[in-house]
């Protein structure tokens, strides 16, 4: 099993920093609908378990309302801050990014985050709003409050707008990514500009979109590598240099996911999953914001 002494492999970002290729999410499975002040002790314990198992990449967001738990778990874990890679995201308070990052850092009890993301582009009514927000993100990075800055749920047109005026190219775009949502034009654009792809919902084909065309092949690969289909899905991301952010409240699952770092799919297997996946389209998140047929 991977642990803090046998780290999860990392991907080099375009700013020279490195991001662990498997992350633990504090969003799905942990959303808080009500009082942000009410601390979810189960979440704190789960994050500590994840850290103990070897997860160093921890994914949060202001809208998840879980930053306080993330901060408490980091403190209680006893793992030195610099050994962890902490992401948070902004969208609700997008009109005041300098205050929003300070608020997030206060909740996280941290001096800096490793990665700060604009959670979505859907609040913006014009390209110039996207460009101005990005300029403020650059200031956050300059002030040392975030080591790396990036975006999430941006489509090619949003990246095009940002890149027109950016001094710093976004380090990554965190998007829904799995065999049934592969975004070929977006990934091509990421490659061209050195923007890392970070996948959320990497297990969607196994957890939400069954039955589907990849099922039989994923099952065969799971048998071949003596892992679960989910671990094949995570490895399929990693083998394409896509960082995968997953989660679970179950320790056994979190432990099992780490097996995705212990084997490698062949190029033919990666291609076969890709081609089978292209036969179906499924989106699980932000369905009210995207055109239902948009695969970009
Ligand atoms: N930037 C964004 O807009 C978004 C970011 N995220 C981030 O990504 C993280 C992971 O997102 P997910 O969609 O949860 O990732 P995921 O696709 O890896 O799914 C994980 C979920 O699947 C469940 N699961 C795993 N194996 C299963 C099985 N065999 N049978 C049934 N259920 C199983 C887990 O318990 C967990 O609830 C979030 O916690 C959040 O941090 C998530 C959604 C949107
Ligand atoms: O990041 C995941 C999806 C998401 C988008 N908006 C919200 C608000 C509250 C919890 C999760 C999310």
From TrEMBL:
The keyword NADP applies. InterPro entries: AKR (IPR020471), AKR3C2/3 (IPR044494), Aldo/ket_reductase_CS (IPR018170), NAD(P)_OxRdtase_dom_sf (IPR036812), NADP_OxRdtase_dom (IPR023210). The record marks 89 as: Lowers pKa of active site Tyr. PROSITE patterns: ALDOKETO_REDUCTASE_2. The active site is at 64 (proton donor). Gene3D superfamilies: NADP-dependent oxidoreductase domain. GO terms for molecular function: oxidoreductase activity, acting on NAD(P)H as acceptor; oxidoreductase activity, acting on the CH-OH group of donors, NAD or NADP as acceptor. The keyword NADP applies. Pfam families: Aldo_ket_red. Substrate binds at residue 119. Keywords: NADP, Oxidoreductase. Residues 25-277 form the NADP-dependent oxidoreductase domain. It comes from the Eukaryota. Belongs to the aldo/keto reductase family. This is Aldo-keto reductase family 1 member C13.
